Amino acid sequence: MTVASKNGPSISQLEQLFDSLSTAEITKFTRAIESDRNAPRLPLPHDQILKILRPRLASLKPERYPTPMRQFCTPFEDLLTSEPPSERGLRISRQSLVPIWNVVCESASAEFHKACKDLEAGAEANDKSRIFSSERRLWGEASRCIEEQIRISEQGVKQERALATRLGSRVHLPSMAIIARMLRVAEPVIDMRLRFPSAPIRSLSNSDLVWLREKFIEVSAEKPGYESQFMTAILMRLLRPSELFKVIRVLSSKSDDRSLGSTNLASAGDMVIDMLSEIVTEVERGVGSGKDEHQILQLARWYASEFVRITRELSIRKDGPWGERLLGTRRRVSQAIANTMFGASPERVTEALPQPPRGPAPRGGLAPPLFSQPFDAEKVLAAEHSAEAIAETASISHILAAQSSATKAVVEIKKKLNQVGRAGIDGMARLEPPDYANAQRHLMAIVRLLEIIDGPEDADLLRRRGMSALRGLTERAGR
Prior knowledge:
Elements: H1 11-19, H2 23-38, H3 46-60, H4 68-73, E1 80-81, E2 92-93, H5 97-107, H6 110-125, H7 128-153, H8 157-167, H9 173-184, H10 186-195, H11 206-222, H12 227-235, H13 244-251, H14 257-260, H15 266-289, H16 293-313, H17 321-350, H18 377-395, H19 403-426, H20 436-454, H21 456-478
Parallel strand pairs: 1-2
Helix pairs in contact: 1-3, 2-3, 6-7, 7-8, 7-9, 11-13, 12-15, 15-16, 15-17, 16-17, 16-18, 17-18, 17-19, 18-19, 18-20, 19-20, 19-21, 20-21
């Protein structure tokens, strides 16, 4: 049995204890553990206890104990990702946090360390006003420290290598630069988070847009050059990136992307399209890794929805900077969908059907009736899932610029289903009575697939013809 300490309770016993606690008790207990970890008074396995609590904390999201590092991260918390560090993108890898924090602690001013101590004292006393003032000093000093470290690293290869060595890897350098700029707008970002405490934000109301407009104007006046960081913070709190175009619309009298390209809002639109491009990359990866059709469909549906919402909010010109990039993402997603949903996927539908024998006909000239072949329920179910994904993707193919490949795939599948269905019905006269139920299963599977792909008309015609033939067989067998 794994134990929490040498003579203490087991992990399973601790889990049972924590599960029995109420939300208020969990919040109070977590605060006490984090407080003791910050200034140890008891010989407790703090990290192990917090690890056991983490799933419960993730669902409850209680107010956490304010440590210097936690408050340091608050302004850019919505940008954090568990993905490895990247040279590009808006997000900050969690793997970069400790190396960057360590460099800040090594290099920052005495005022930074005083702010950290004041924050710890405020947290210990649960003094909100002291925490409020000290964290703002911490943000300012940390931002200046990081900017100075970056400035030194830009003086030459040797200096850059020295900073990368202190961080443990140069992959953390981009995240370090993002953090420095986000800390410059820490206070308006915190105001925004307080205005919208529940993330993600599903939709922005008119009053929300008015508030964001006023706050953006304030940032532009007081922190010129950092408007895009404030917009980044808004973007990362939205459920749908396209909602940011509502903010862009209320901030500018210009209505098209060519005009907006020369304003301080240009980078905001670029960020939204960057995120749309990430969706396309996921579609392409899904194709490469063999994700099933429904996963790719979900991404394609999300892309199509965002594409429509973006073009509805603003006049996006084909020759404008955003228009060119949007069309580029659409070409990529169209190609990816053509290669999978409308390329390989139709075979997943038709391979579930009873297959006519290949090669020369057997002696006597007649092959066994098609519907006498064994019925594979699992294959048919998989075929239905593929057909549903293809049909739904075809319904949004005009947005994805994939109408041609969609039409070709649907026509191909419909033709094959009708061919097999008619051939199976034509061969029913040679079925033996024990095969009737099996034949009906084949018939109804083909009817169902045809209905999914092309609607009820042809499917109903095939169903009535097949059931009429089966009734005739049953009546003859009963005589």
